[in-house]
Amino acid sequence: MAEWDEQLVDERIEQRRRRRPRFTDDRITLAHGAGGKATRALVEGLIVPRLSNDWVAALDDAAVLGELEGRVSFTTDTFVVTPIRFPGGSIGELAVNGTVNDLAVSGARPVALSLGLVLEEGLTRDELEQEIDAIAGAVEAAKVRVACGDTKVVERTKADRLYVNTSGIGIVDERADLGSHRIVPGDQVIVSGTIGDHGIAVMLARGELELAADVLSDTRPLWPVAEALLTSCGPGLRCMRDATRGGVATVANELVMTQDVGIIIEETALPVLPAVNGACELLGLDPLYVANEGKLVAIVGPDVALEAVAALRATEAGRDAAVIGEVVDEPAGRVLGRTAFGGHRMIDLLVGDPLPRIC
Amino acid sequence: MAEWDEQLVDERIEQRRRRRPRFTDDRITLAHGAGGKATRALVEGLIVPRLSNDWVAALDDAAVLGELEGRVSFTTDTFVVTPIRFPGGSIGELAVNGTVNDLAVSGARPVALSLGLVLEEGLTRDELEQEIDAIAGAVEAAKVRVACGDTKVVERTKADRLYVNTSGIGIVDERADLGSHRIVPGDQVIVSGTIGDHGIAVMLARGELELAADVLSDTRPLWPVAEALLTSCGPGLRCMRDATRGGVATVANELVMTQDVGIIIEETALPVLPAVNGACELLGLDPLYVANEGKLVAIVGPDVALEAVAALRATEAGRDAAVIGEVVDEPAGRVLGRTAFGGHRMIDLLVGDPLPRIC
Question: Do residues A67 and B72 make contact, with C-beta atoms less than 8 angstroms apart?
Answer without folding.
Answer: yes
